[in-house]
């Protein structure tokens, strides 16, 4: 087990800068998830840690030592790939023991380690099967077993659940978390799925365009995004963004979204936003904070009436879509209180969770 | 229109479509079988003639009045006995076997290593080099034998079947390398990355991962090398002239045709025996063409 550090790491492919001088400190035992859209540089970063891509500039440390010029086999890392990458001509046992054999472990030690990993992953009965005789989930378990038996300093996962169906993905997600809690190895996990990132990570690294947008715990990321990108990327459905003007409203402030809708800024935030009064900004509010009026002690000024465009019942909640000033907004309401399409519904904006974003810098203010 | 009428018309249209589909399919099948049978007859006539003639006596072959397509005077193994005892056929066979085995071995070693480096280890100029290798295959041996004659003579292998071991790979290596490059490139790159992380060097990766996974491709390349080497005619014709060094293709023809005297029975028996090893090899290894060894390596 070891800490991993990336210091000013750059990766350039010809003239394209895939990773732009990123810095990341991963302490021992931590589970870090790199998340972001396709082409954001997350997989390239992981592959640089693995030694599968050369670093253009900067340094990568594993266990306090620079590993830039070390081949993958000398970095003491294990990697699980999106498409499993099992050796098709070998049984599950041979796949898991291949790395140990190359490292000249004794047969008894290999047997002990493979059996132990098979027990952790519940694949003891599958050890004599070849990959083609295994289901997707079983193959991914064997691929994880191949990583576990090595007892490496760092586990690297490159979108390991992307090829599984939705149900199996949830199951394997829990499995990965359980395995990490048991073996406690430092883990770097790459995914484009923000739900996976939020559920698995001790800390999430949100990447965009080759740079790190924010590094934070899942809760922190959800409640205190630093940029518009993070605010929009984390959470499903995505946060609503609306053009607004911040108005002075007596001693307080008001977010003016349209001629008819102006929402009061909570008193606790007035001081923070005071110097922005009169400016055109972007107002952000998550769908879960636009609901039917619930609490009796609510601020009546946060309520507004809209005509619904689309209503999507989800079972435990209903998504309602409406338009304000040409901008589509989504709310999450109780199924029993939802109105139908083209009907008017009264909604409540929970302004305690509001965000104001500078449209020029895209930074959350 | 009533509901019943609409349903009836809909059903009628469905039936019409179905019968039209099956009629199309029937015509496609009839046309396929017609051409398949035509080609089968066309290509099977020479081997049939070879088999029939090989089992005839010299007298029957020489008798112009008999039907050449059937054995009228009884099956005889005389031609085979004569061939094996009265001619140098066994020497030709042995020489051909030695040359072919050596050529297949050399070809596989060279082309597997070349294909692995060109197909998997990306380096500057690798794709141009790969294309260049294939282009060499396009130069016909009927042109190459003139410069090669000088080379074979210079290394002292003229009129020696070891000279064939030297020159046949110029025919087999380019094409086999080309086949193997395609095969190696079809193997997911994550497999070698997994092997690298597991601690394998490039040679271990090749021997423990790539060769077993690419076995169908290697077998296909081996069959090609075997066939080319076994059936080569131009090079032995140009470079070999002693009976003790000759190979099957040229040796059978030159020793059994004396001026205008054709020993048809022995020629056909020789051709039949010479064709047997490739047939056996094809029969046993054909399955590897369709064996999906890579199934399960990755998703799918």
How is this structure best summarized?
By secondary structure, chain A is of the alpha+beta class. Chain A contains 9 helices and 20 strands.
Strand arrangement in the largest pleated sheet of chain B: 1-2
Number of helices of chain B: 14
Spans of at least 5 consecutive residues with low confidence of chain A: none
Shape of chain B: flat
Going by helix content, strand content and strand pairing, the class of chain A is alpha+beta
For the termini of chain B, the CA-CA separation is 50 Å
Structure description:
The complex is a heterodimer of chains A (365) and B (300). Chain A folds into two domains: 230 residues, P-loop containing nucleotide triphosphate hydrolases (Rossmann fold, 3-Layer(aba) Sandwich); 118 residues, OB fold (Dihydrolipoamide Acetyltransferase, E2P). In chain A, the strands form four sheets. Chain A has a six-stranded mixed sheet, sandwiched between helices. In chain A, strands 13-12-11-14-20 form a five-stranded antiparallel sheet. In chain A, helix 2 packs across helix 3 and helix 3 packs across helix 4. With 365 residues, chain A is α+β, with helices and mostly antiparallel strands. Chain A is elongated. In chain A, strand 4 and strand 5 form a beta hairpin. The model of chain A has no long low-confidence stretch (mean pLDDT 88). Chain B is mostly helical. Chain B has two domains: 43 residues; 204 residues, MetI-like fold (Orthogonal Bundle), CATH 1.10.3720. Helix content of chain B is 77%, strand content 1%. In chain B, strand 1 and strand 2 form a beta hairpin. In chain B, helix 4 packs antiparallel against helix 5, helix 4 runs parallel beside helix 8 and helix 5 crosses helix 8. Chain B starts with a helix and ends in a 10-residue tail after the last helix. Chains A and B meet through strand 6, helix 2 and helix 4 of A and helix 9 and helix 10 of B.
């Amino acid at each position: 087990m070891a800490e991993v550090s990336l210091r000013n790491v750059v990766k350039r492919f010809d003239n394209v800068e895939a990773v732009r001088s990123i810095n990341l400190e991963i302490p021992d035992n931590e589970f870090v998830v790199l998340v972001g859209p396709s082409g954001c540089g997350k997989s390239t970063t992981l592959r640089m840690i693995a030694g599968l891509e050369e670093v253009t500039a900067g340094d990568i440390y594993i266990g306090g030592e620079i590993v830039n010029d070390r081949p993958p086999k000398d970095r003491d890392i294990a990697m699980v790939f999106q498409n499993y990458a099992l050796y098709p001509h070998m049984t599950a046992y041979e796949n898991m023991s291949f790395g140990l054999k190359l490292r000249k472990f004794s047969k008894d030690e290999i047997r002990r380690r493979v059996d132990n990993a098979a027990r952790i992953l519940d694949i003891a009965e599958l050890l004599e099967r070849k990959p083609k005789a295994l289901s997707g989930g079983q193959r991914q378990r064997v691929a994880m077993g191949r990583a576990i038996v090595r007892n490496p300093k760092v586990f690297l996962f490159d979108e390991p659940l992307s090829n599984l169906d939705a149900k199996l993905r949830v199951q394997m997600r829990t499995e990965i978390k359980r395995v990490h809690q048991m073996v406690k190895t430092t883990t770097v996990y790459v995914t484009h799925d923000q739900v996976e990132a939020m559920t698995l990570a001790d800390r999430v690294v949100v990447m965009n365009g080759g740079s790190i947008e924010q590094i934070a715990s899942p809760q922190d990321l959800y409640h205190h995004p630093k940029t518009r990108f993070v605010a929009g990327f984390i959470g499903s459905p995505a946060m609503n963004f609306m053009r607004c003007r911040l108005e002075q409203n007596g001693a307080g402030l008001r977010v003016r979204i349209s001629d008819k809708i102006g929402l009061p800024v909570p008193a606790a935030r007035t001081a923070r936003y005071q110097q922005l009064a009169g400016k055109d900004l972007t107002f952000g509010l998550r769908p879960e904070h636009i609901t039917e009026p619930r609490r009796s002690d609510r601020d009546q000024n946060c309520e507004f009436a809209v005509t619904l465009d689309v209503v999507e019942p989800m079972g435990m909640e209903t998504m309602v879509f409406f338009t304000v000033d040409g901008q589509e907004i989504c709310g999450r309401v109780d199924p029993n209180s939802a109105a139908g399409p083209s009907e008017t519904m009264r909604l409540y904006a929970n302004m305690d969770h509001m965000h104001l974003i500078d449209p020029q810098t895209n930074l959350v203010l | 229109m009533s509901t019943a009428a609409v349903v009836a018309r809909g059903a009628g249209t469905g039936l019409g479509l179905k019968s039209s589909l099956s009629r199309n399919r029937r015509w496609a099948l009839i046309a396929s079988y017609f051409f398949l049978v035509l080609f089968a007859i066309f290509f099977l006539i020479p081997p049939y003639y070879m088999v029939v003639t090989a089992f005839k006596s010299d007298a029957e072959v020489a008798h112009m009045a008999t039907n050449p397509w059937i054995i009228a005077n009884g099956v005889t193994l005389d031609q085979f006995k004569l061939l094996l005892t009265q001619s140098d056929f066994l020497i030709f066979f042995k020489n051909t076997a030695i040359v072919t085995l050596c050529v297949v071995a050399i070809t596989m070693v060279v082309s597997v290593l070349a294909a692995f480096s060109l197909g998997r280890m990306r380096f500057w100029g690798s794709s141009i080099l790969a294309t260049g290798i294939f282009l060499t295959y396009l130069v016909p041996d009927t042109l190459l034998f003139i410069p090669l004659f000088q080379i074979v003579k210079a290394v002292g292998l003229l009129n020696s079947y070891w000279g064939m071991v030297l020159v046949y790979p110029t025919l087999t290596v380019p094409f086999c390398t080309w086949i193997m490059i395609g095969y190696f490139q079809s193997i997911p790159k994550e497999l070698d990355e997994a092997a690298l992380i597991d601690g394998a060097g490039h040679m271990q990766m090749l021997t423990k991962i790539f060769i077993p996974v690419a076995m169908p491709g290697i077998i296909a390349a081996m069959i090609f090398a075997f066939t080319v080497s076994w059936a080569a005619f131009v090079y032995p014709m140009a470079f070999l002239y002693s009976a003790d060094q000759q190979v099957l293709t040229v040796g059978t023809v030159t020793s059994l045709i004396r001026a205008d005297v054709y020993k048809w029975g022995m020629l056909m028996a020789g051709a039949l025996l010479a064709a047997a090893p490739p047939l056996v090899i094809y029969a046993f290894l054909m399955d590897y063409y369709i064996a999906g060894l890579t199934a399960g390596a990755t998703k799918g």
